[in-house]
């Protein structure tokens, strides 16, 4: 199996929308705004949320659709088609926001911009950090990339791969630079992942795809390995296995970053991630939240005298 070097990027996601427990998103955004080296995408379900995100200082906005009608109505209170209509408006607003920057045309012609494959004619495909003549500048952008319930829904059960492919292509046609396919309730197995990915890859280039697994049934790592073998190179994960969805009862958090890094190290994939330091981050947040780590790697290594940075 041949895989290119995997690069970890710090992602912080919060949601400016109708979920009550996320009503403090603006305050959180203010607190983390100047976090060096991190991308801080903000989830938004509509144009109002996009405007609130930009007002709060967001430089990257992510939108999220579902392949399940029932989950779409539970999560963002609208049908799939209604959500896609809303997101087209967000994509257009993102393009207008970008075009309002006076240095955009200068950036497009600069060799650094060309090297980073900046496609400024695309409504939402923009590299977040661009360096023009040695000066770093931030770009407002939208990243309409999340498709939830790509294998199963807590209400409807199994989801047809054709539904996932339809939603993914609609988002891609809006101009998304990455579409993350989410197993929201963690029911996916490798046998279910193959037909889903094949259907999506038939309409969206594989280099534009990412996968997002919840570890409810302990299937995340085999699903990730299969995804890598099928050409996916972007994997969502969360330190200590944090995460979840208030509208997906019973689902666990995302696959733990510690476990993904441990597996990649075992495959000989260079990540440049210090597993020992990563575990310290997991310990910190787990202690602050008063919950055990969701990482099997962190739990196992905490019981033995091993230097995790050398694993």
TrEMBL record:
First-level EC class: lyase
One MF term in the entry's GO annotations: hydroxymethylglutaryl-CoA lyase activity
Pfam families linked to this entry: HMGL-like
Secretion signal, residue range per the UniProt entry: 1-25
Keyword line: Lyase, Metal-binding, Signal
Keyword Transmembrane helix among record annotations: no
The EC number(s) this enzyme carries: 4.1.3.4
Entry annotated with the keyword Signal: yes
PROSITE patterns: HMG_COA_LYASE, PYR_CT
Catalytic activity from the UniProt record: (3S)-3-hydroxy-3-methylglutaryl-CoA = acetoacetate + acetyl-CoA
Pyruvate carboxyltransferase domain sequence ranges: 152-279
Stored CDD domains: DRE_TIM_HMGL
Top-rank lineage group of the source organism: Eukaryota
Pathway annotation: Metabolic intermediate metabolism; (S)-3-hydroxy-3-methylglutaryl-CoA degradation; acetoacetate from (S)-3-hydroxy-3-methylglutaryl-CoA: step 1/1
Similarity-based family: Belongs to the HMG-CoA lyase family.
Protein's UniProt name: hydroxymethylglutaryl-CoA lyase
């Amino acid at each position: 199996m041949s895989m290119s070097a995997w690069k970890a990027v710090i992602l912080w996601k919060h949601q400016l929308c109708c979920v009550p427990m996320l009503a403090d998103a603006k305050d959180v955004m203010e607190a983390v705004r100047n976090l060096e080296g991190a991308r801080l995408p903000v989830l938004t379900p509509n144009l109002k949320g996009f405007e609130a995100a930009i007002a709060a200082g967001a430089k990257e906005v992510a939108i999220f659709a579902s392949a399940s009608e029932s989950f779409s109505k539970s999560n963002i209170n609208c049908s799939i088609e209604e959500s896609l209509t809303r997101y087209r408006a967000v994509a257009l607003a993102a393009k207008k926001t970008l075009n309002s920057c006076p240095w955009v045309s200068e950036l497009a012609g600069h060799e650094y911009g060309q090297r980073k494959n900046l496609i400024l004619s695309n409504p939402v495909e923009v590299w977040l950090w661009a360096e023009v003549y040695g000066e770093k500048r931030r770009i407002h952008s939208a990243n309409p990339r999340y498709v939830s319930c790509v294998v199963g829904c807590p209400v409807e059960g199994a989801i047809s791969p054709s539904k996932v492919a339809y939603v993914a292509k609609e988002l891609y046609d809006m101009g998304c630079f990455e579409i993350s396919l989410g197993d929201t309730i963690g029911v996916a197995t490798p046998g279910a992942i193959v037909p889903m990915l094949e259907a999506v890859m038939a309409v969206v280039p594989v280099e534009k795809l990412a996968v997002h697994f919840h570890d409810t049934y302990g299937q995340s790592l085999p699903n990730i390995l299969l995804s890598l073998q099928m050409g996916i190179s972007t994997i969502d994960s969360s330190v200590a296995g944090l995460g979840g969805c208030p509208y997906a009862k019973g689902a666990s958090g995302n696959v733990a970053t510690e476990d993904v890094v441990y597996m990649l190290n075992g495959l000989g994939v260079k990540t440049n991630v210090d597993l020992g330091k990563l575990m310290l981050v997991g310990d910190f947040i787990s202690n602050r939240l008063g919950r055990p780590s969701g990482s099997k790697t962190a739990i196992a290594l905490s019981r033995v005298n091993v230097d995790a940075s050398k694993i």
